[in-house]
Design goal:
- The chain is of the alpha+beta class and 117 residues long.
- The protein has one domain (10-108): HIT-like (HIT family, subunit A), CATH 3.30.428.10.
- It contains three helices and five strands, in the order H-E-E-E-H-H-E-E.
- The chain has a five-stranded antiparallel β-sheet with strand order 1-2-3-5-4, covered by helices on one side.
- Strand 1 (23-26) and strand 2 (30-34) form a beta hairpin.
- The protein binds guanosine-5'-monophosphate (5GP) and zinc ion.
- Zinc ion (ZN) binds at residues 6, 9, 11-12, 51, 101.
- Zinc ion (ZN) binds next to helix 1.
């Protein structure tokens, strides 16, 4: 069922604390932790605790959780002390999505090119 934990999902396992992560912030509905392969000095993943495969399906299925992810992303950036940052939701393998549990990348701390690659 949409929103339920998935046994084979890496990020559901991180939410369940079955796999360790460097947690930056935890709220009732979100978890923020450092990316294991950082692409910038600040690279934090913000995820909803509920499982949806991508950002759009999260927004459709649980709009409150989607809003909480965005709010948490802003708080993480503030906590990191960065003024400028980028929030990225890769959607689909062709766009670089490798983990199919919705997540925001919060990237900052270096020059961020626009348009991105
Ligand atoms: P995607 O490519 O799906 O947009 O982002 C998935 C991200 O998860 C990648 O940036 C990858 O480095 C990160 N990642 C993959 N496995 C782990 C893990 O076990 N722990 C953490 N903290 N990050 C992970
Ligand atoms: Zn999941």
């Amino acid at each position: 069922m949409a929103g339920e934990p998935q046994a084979d999902c890496l990020f559901c396992k991180i939410v369940a604390k079955e796999i360790p992560a460097t947690i930056v912030q935890e709220t009732e509905s979100t978890l923020a932790f450092r990316d294991i392969n950082p692409q910038a000095p600040t690279h934090v993943l913000v995820i909803p605790k509920v499982h949806f495969p991508d950002a759009a399906s999260l927004a459709a299925g649980d709009p409150e959780a989607a809003a909480e992810v965005l709010r948490a992303a802003g708080e993480v950036a503030e906590g990191e002390g960065v003024e400028s940052y980028r929030i990225v939701f890769n959607t689909g393998a062709g766009a670089g999505q490798t983990v199919f549990h919705a997540h925001a990348h919060v990237l900052a701390g270096r020059g961020l090119e626009w348009p991105p690659g």
